[in-house]
């Protein structure tokens, strides 16, 4: 049984939960980091699995792995799901491009707005900084919209792939955080297309930003 360690409210944990659902892989989710005193991330039992004290972590038949996007790639490859993670170099590179774009460009763009408007974190209450961050976030979403207008389907082409999991969760966050958003028809259609998938309804569009 695949063990997925991490609180299910975490966007990075939800990536792994969604993929496990898509794969049909039996799993158990252990909500480390959810505030339960018995599942704190600095517990030696968890620290021995991930010295960074971050979620998610998986344990798959004795194999331990952390970093959410590495986990996605491993699970798709180990389950021989080339439909989700292609074998051909160029097709795989296109999927990897969008996974890495989500992590390196899109993800940092929402940090201030998310911490300000959802987490209400101390120090994230500057209206100008919030407006600047929201504008930057919207700029990246326009990049995604142009890609989706071209594919008229999923982020890397005609079919659902591994790239749509981190991107799909990011799109849900964009719709969930109360900022001013431009009308992006490609993104709207994509959001509804993803919502036809049971895994996205369970772990993406499930009321959690």
Automatic annotation (TrEMBL):
Transmembrane segments: none annotated. InterPro entries: Glutathione-S-Trfase_C-like, Glutathione-S-Trfase_C_sf, Glutathione_S-Trfase, Glutathione_S-Trfase_N, Thioredoxin-like_sf. Residues 88-209 form the GST C-terminal domain. Residues 1-83 form the GST N-terminal domain. Keywords: Transferase. One of its GO terms (molecular function) is transferase activity. Belongs to the GST superfamily. PANTHER family: DISULFIDE-BOND OXIDOREDUCTASE YFCG, GLUTATHIONE S-TRANSFERASE-RELATED. This is Glutathione S-transferase. It comes from Pandoraea anhela.
